[in-house]
Design a protein that fits this description.
By secondary structure, the protein is mainly beta. It has one helix and eight strands; from the N terminus they run βββαβββββ. It has two domains: 15-57, Double Stranded RNA Binding Domain, CATH 3.30.160; 61-114.
Length: 123
């Protein structure tokens, strides 16, 4: 059995690899977190699936360490990742999503990740 790191979104250890068959008849492997529903995959082997899950999990950092007033990636909802911004408005501090301009309500993020470097454009 392959060891999986805890879920990078909720921190749960209730994660497992499962296999399924694609419509083309290929066996594919995914990791699912039974706590928050995060799904990662598909991959062509259980070993590769675990390797990518474990590598991805190590990129997330505790939300308390996130920079203020700078866009970062945060999990939002069951399995969506958005760019978020932590800042103060009217005496209160909230996480904001750039697409809405409104504070994120409900389940607040527990982890963050830096935005990737921009792609280099063709000259």
């Amino acid at each position: 059995m392959t060891n999986l790191k805890p879920c990078p979104f909720c921190g749960s250890a209730e994660c497992e690899i499962f296999s399924r068959t694609s419509i083309e008849g290929r066996v594919l492997y995914d990791v699912v977190c039974h706590e928050c529903g995060t799904l990662s995959g598909p991959w062509g082997s259980a070993e590769r699936c675990a390797k990518h899950w474990n590598r991805r999990a190590s990129l997330w950092q505790p939300i308390e360490t996130a920079p203020k007033r700078e866009y970062v990636l945060i999990p939002y909802g069951e399995s969506i990742i958005i760019a978020g911004l932590f800042e103060s408005h009217g005496g209160s501090e909230h996480w904001y999503a750039p697409h809405s301009g409104s504070p994120l309500l409900g389940r607040l993020p527990t982890h963050w990740m830096p935005l990737p470097e921009p792609l280099e454009g063709k000259g």
